[in-house]
Design goal:
With 474 residues, this protein is of the alpha/beta class. It has 16 helices and 17 strands. The structure holds adenosine-5'-diphosphate (ADP) and alpha-D-glucopyranose.
C-alpha cells in the first residue's frame, strides 16, 4: 500500500516539536510492517538538507493567485531514514531556515500543497492513501475532491491527523484567490466563522480523521479554539491513536547523546552518572532530587506556571530539591525564568534555547519530568521520560491521561494532578519528594516504567488497520 505523509516537519530534517518526531518515525515503522510509506515536506535550508544528497525528480510551475511559482521535487538518494523522503523547493518561498513564523506562512503552505498535488497528478501517481498532518496541509482533502485540476485523484482516501487542534491556519476570504479553480457550490466546506479554516475544512472533507490520543478526541468537542461544534458533529469520523516513540532514537542502552548508557540492570548507577554530568554542567547538586521541564514555553504547556511553582516549592522544601528547565518560546516567560535563575543559584537552572542532545541528557539524568500542560494532544516527553526511567509528573489531560498511571493506583508509575495551577504543581512536587525518599520504591517504579511498551509497532499497525478499512468505504 502506497502512502504519502504530508506535514510541515520531519525529524531529523526539520523539527520544532513532536510533530516532527511522529512524521520521522511512523512511516519507518509502517514500512517495517510491509507498507510503502513516503514523506513529503517543504524544503528547508537546514543541516540535513545541506549534508545529504538529493535527486531532482520533478520540475514544474504552479500558480498561486497571479504568481507563477517554479518548483522542484527533491528525493533523498538513499532512503536512510527508513522511508522515501521528498522535499518541495520553491525558490524564495520554500527554501528558508525556519519552519514557521514567516509573515507569508499561509502562502508558503498553500504553495506547498498545490505543488504536491500538481506533482502527483502530472506524474500520474495514484497513492492508496494521502495522510495529512495538521492544518498546514489541511486543504488537500478539499482540493482533491472539489478542484477539477485533480479529478484523477479525487477518489484517493485521505486521513487527517490532528496533532494540535488549537491552531487552525485561518485565512481571510480575501485570500481565496490563492486556491486554484474549485467548484463554487462547495466553498462552504472551507468556511468556519466567516473565514477559510484549513483545519475545519480538513475535518469536513477527509475520509477519516485521527487525534494523537483517544482522550484528545473527546476533549476537542469541549475545547478546540472555536471548532467544538464541528468536532461534536464529526465525532463518528474520528478515532484516537496514541503516538509511539522511535525506540531506536530513544534508547538509553545505545543513545549516543547521553553521557552514560544504561539498562534496567544497572539502572540506579546509570541514572546517577547522567545526573552528575547534568548537575556539573548546570551547577546543581547531584545528591538532591532533580525535577526538569523540557518544552515550548507557551501557555498550552503551562510554562507560565513554572517560575512561581519553582520558587514556592523551593521555599517549601529549602535545600531539598533542584529544578532544571530546557525550553524556548514566549519572551515574557523566558525573561521570568532567567530572573528566577539569578534568584536561586545552585537550586534552579534554565537553558533557554533548543538543543536536541541536551534534551536526551535531561531525560536520562533527571529524576522527575514535570508537564503541567493545559492542552496535550499526546505528548512525547512523558514517553521519553518513561523510557529513561524518569518519573513523569503530569497534569491529567489528553495523551498524558492516556499514558501515565499515578503511582498511587494499581500498576502505576507516575504522578498525576488535575488542575494546571501552582497549587497542584507544588502539591505534586511534595509527593515527588516523598517518593524520592523511598529509593527502593522509586527503583521499582523506574523498572516498571522502563518495561512499558510505547514503541510505534502497535500504533503504526493501528493506522494500517484504519487505512485498510478505507478501501471498503471508497
Ligand atoms: P509539542 O510537539 O507540543 O512541542 P511533544 O511532547 O509532542 O510536544 O514533543 C516535544 C518534542 O520537542 C520532544 O521531542 C522534546 O524533547 C522536544 N523539545 C521541546 N523543546 C525542546 C528544547 N528546547 N530543546 C530540545 N528539544 C526540545
Ligand atoms: C503536537 C502536540 C503534542 C503531540 C505532538 C505529536 O505538537 O502538542 O502533544 O505529542 O503534536 O503528535
Amino acid at each position: 500500500m502506497r502512502i504519502y505523509h504530508l506535514a510541515a516537519e520531519c525529524y531529523p530534517v526539520a523539527k520544532v516539536g513532536g510533530l516532527a518526531d511522529v512524521v520521522g518515525a511512523l512511516p519507518k515503522y509502517q514500512n517495517l510492517a510491509g507498507m510503502d510509506a513516503a514523506v513529503v515536506i517543504p524544503y528547508y535550508d537546514r543541516k540535513f538538507t545541506r549534508e545529504n544528497e538529493f535527486d531532482v525528480i520533478f520540475k514544474a510551475v504552479t500558480l498561486l493567485d497571479t504568481k507563477r511559482l517554479y518548483f522542484e521535487v527533491l528525493k533523498e538518494k538513499t532512503n536512510k531514514l527508513g522511508f522515501e523522503l521528498y522535499l518541495i523547493r520553491i525558490p524564495g518561498l520554500l527554501d528558508r531556515k525556519e519552519v514557521y513564523m514567516y509573515p507569508d506562512e499561509r502562502e508558503q503552505f498553500i504553495a506547498f500543497q498545490l505543488a504536491f498535488l500538481d506533482w502527483i497528478s502530472y506524474s500520474q501517481q495514484s497513492p492508496d492513501i494521502i495522510h495529512c498532518h495538521d492544518h498546514h496541509v489541511g486543504l488537500i482533502p478539499f482540493l482533491l475532491q472539489h478542484s477539477k485540476l485533480y479529478t484523477a485523484l479525487s477518489h484517493t482516501p485521505t486521513v487527517f491527523t490532528i496533532h494540535n487542534g488549537q491552531y487552525h491556519g485561518v485565512l481571510s476570504w480575501s485570500k481565496f484567490s490563492y486556491l486554484p479553480e474549485v467548484d463554487m457550490t462547495q466553498t462552504g466546506l472551507l468556511d468556519w466563522a466567516n473565514a477559510i479554516n484549513p483545519l475545519a475544512a480538513a475535518v469536513k472533507c477527509c475520509t477519516k480523521f485521527t487525534t494523537v490520543s483517544p482522550s484528545y478526541l473527546e476533549e476537542l468537542s469541549v475545547s478546540s479554539n472555536g471548532l467544538e461544534y464541528l468536532f461534536y458533529l464529526e465525532h463518528a469520523k474520528g478515532s484516537g491513536i496514541i503516538n509511539g516513540i522511535d525506540t531506536e532514537v530513544w534508547n538509553p542502552k545505545t543513545d549516543p547523546m547521553i553521557s552514560a548508557k544504561f539498562t534496567t540492570t544497572k539502572l540506579a548507577q546509570g541514572k546517577q552518572k547522567n545526573k552528575e554530568e547534568l548537575c556539573a554542567r548546570f551547577n546543581l547538586a547531584p545528591e538532591l532530587p532533580l525535577i526538569s521541564f523540557i518544552g515550548r514555553l507557551v501557555m498550552e504547556k503551562g510554562a507560565d506556571l513554572l517560575a512561581e511553582s519553582i520558587s514556592r516549592s523551593i521555599a517549601e522544601h529549602p535545600g531539598k530539591v533542584n529544578f532544571l528547565i530546557l525550553g524556548a518560546g514566549d519572551p515574557g516567560m523566558e525573561q521570568g525564568l532567567r530572573e528566577l535563575k539569578t534568584m536561586l543559584p545552585g537550586q534552579c537552572n534554565i537553558f533557554i534555547g533548543y538543543d536536541e542532545a541536551l534534551a536526551h541528557q535531561v531525560y536520562a539524568g533527571s529524576d522527575f519530568l514535570l508537564m503541567p500542560s493545559r492542552v496535550e494532544p499526546c505528548g512525547l516527553n512523558q514517553l521519553y521520560a518513561l523510557r529513561y526511567g524518569t518519573v513523569p509528573v503530569v497534569r491529567s489531560t489528553g495523551g498524558l491521561k492516556d499514558t501515565v498511571i499515578d503511582f498511587g493506583d494499581e500498576g502505576g508509575y507516575g504522578i498525576r494532578f488535575n488542575q494546571a495551577s501552582v497549587n497542584d504543581i507544588c502539591y505534586s512536587v511534595s509527593r515527588a519528594l516523598i517518593l524520592y525518599e523511598n529509593q527502593q520504591h522509586l527503583q521499582l517504579l523506574r523498572k516498571r516504567m522502563m518495561a512499558l511498551d510505547f514503541s510505534w509497532d502497535r500504533s503504526a499497525k493501528e493506522y494500517i488497520t484504519l487505512y485498510e478499512s478505507l478501501k471498503t468505504i471508497i
